[in-house]
Amino acid sequence: MPRSPVLPSSRPADAPPALHVLAKPSGPICNLACTYCFFLEKEEMYPGDRFRMSDEVLENYIRQQFESQSGPVATLAWQGGEPTLMGLDFFERAVDFESKHNTSELHVERAIQTNGTLLDDQWCEFLAANQFLVGISIDGPSELHDAYRVDKRGEPTHAKALRGLELLRKHKVEFNILCTVHEANSAHPTEVYRYFRDELGARFIQFIPIVERLGRDEGVTDESVRPEAWGEFLCAVFDEWVRNDVGTVFVQSFDAALASWVGVPPGVCIFNETCGNGLALAHNGDVYSCDHFVDPDHLLGNLTETHLIELAARPEQVAFGLDKRDGLPKYCLDCDVRFACHGECPKNRFGIAPNGDTGLNYLCEGYRRFFRHIDAPMRAMARLYDMGKPPAVVMAMVAEADAAIEAAYSATGRNDPCPCGSGAKYKHCHGSHGRSASQRPAARS
User: Fold this and answer.
1) Neighbours of 163 (CB within 10 A)
2) How wide is the angle at C-alpha 42 spanned by C-alphas 85 and 161, nearest 5°?
3) Are strands 351-352 and 358-360 parallel, antiparallel or unpaired?
4) 418: left (phi over 0), alpha (psi -120 to 50) or beta
């Protein structure tokens, strides 16, 4: 067995203050076969492998993660594939290794992302006892979830995922919903959001766009969300949220946006100006630049040979992180919402801008629509924050604005200019179809 590497005598100058690692103990292996999953194909990188993290790699990871933190918190995050395929005993050993190596008595935050189909009472008792935050993947009501989230036989998985969620709730395990947004559910934003809020009782929700390329210059897969649909999805969910749920339901994209309007780091890597602090750990100890860049070009090394903090500080990793900022096309540099977007995730930068710039984010049209749409209520919430008042006060402000707009529409003749400010006559704009304040944007786009 190789000797465990030691922490460098001095912390590398380019080491990040807090290191986040997404560990994949079962590699890309999963009990489902979601048709949009980008990670299943990673199995080809390790031909003939069993895809099970050894105790040597597990212990090295946990020890090095503790040693890499300069602050009081260490996060241990597990993903896949499907991490629960490792079995409960693997995670029990992980907790034992934590006790052994947490000599600085750091606060440990544990998180696991799962499809929920393998959870049982024993699993949930363990997760509750060890205060895991569980992300459970559900894409909406059954007809939307089951469009792409199927098992190896092509059978639907919604009922199994819901059974897992009910067990989490039964054992009072903290959970959030991770919903991928794709071609099948992107046209149903309000239905999806209300399902999570009202039917599943979710209070923390993440929406992740599915963008998978067919190949260089070959477009995206049929399952991928279209840019305009992504923007409309976010806008519609925001309109529901800002009228009803500020302070009681937390949507990651909205929390990140508010942070940007307030002027603090958004806390979500895709919206940070730079990246590079979120590594991906393969089952065999290989460390990659990012979960979305698990490929030979972004292999930094193996933690059984080189310490995590040294891998994170390698020049190629530092350059990888800075390139997110330095590689932005001029079209982005001149954009009025760059402060909130920062070009989003580099993996999606394969579009061409209207001015001919390459490297534009594929989802740019959707994000520009969304960030401009939410500007007015975000400014209002930022002012409330600065005054020490809860952002939830914005709901009353939006309700008041809705009532004023409704009154303006009611007093508008068919041939008058539309109150929305479009310049068109009312009969050719909002008067041409049914409208209500609750269905209109909270701010003009």
Assistant:
1) 13
2) 40
3) antiparallel
4) beta
Distance of alpha carbon 56 from alpha carbon 51, whole angstroms: 14
pLDDT in tens, 236-274: 999 999 999 999 999 999 999 999 999 999 999 999 999
CA–CA gap between residue 58 and residue 75 (Å, rounded) = 14
Tokens of 2: 């190789």
- SS3 for 176? strand
Q: What is the pLDDT of residue 443?
A: 41
How does pLDDT run across 178-188, given as a tens digit for each residue? 999 999 999 99
Considering the entire predicted model, what is its pTM? 0.92
**Dihedral of the CA atoms 10, 11, 12, 16 (nearest 10)?**
180
CA distance 82 to 31: 7
Q: Is 146 a catalytic residue?
A: no
How many CA atoms lie less than 13 Å away from 75 in the CB half-sphere?
16
- 57 is written with which tokens? 């790699």
Asked whether 140 and 188 are in contact (CB, 8 A), the reply is yes
How far is the C-alpha of 12 from the C-alpha of 396, rounded, in Å?
A: 50
Q: Which residue has the tokens 């003749």?
A: 413
Three state DSSP letters for 177-224: EEEEECCCCCCCHHHHHHHHHHHCCCCEEEEEECCCECCCCCCECCCC
Q: How far is CA 42 from CA 50, 69, 81, 302, in A?
A: 13, 29, 10, 17
CB within 8 Å of 316: residues ≥ 6 apart: 289, 300
Parallel, antiparallel, or unpaired for β 299-302 and 286-288?
A: antiparallel
Distance CA(127)–CA(264), nearest Å, equals 32
Choose the catalytic residue: 139, 146, 245, 291: 291
Q: What's the length of the chain? A: 445
Closest C-alpha among 284, 309, 218, 263 to residue 52? 284
Looking at the DSSP assignment, which residues form a beta bridge with residue 360?
A: 351
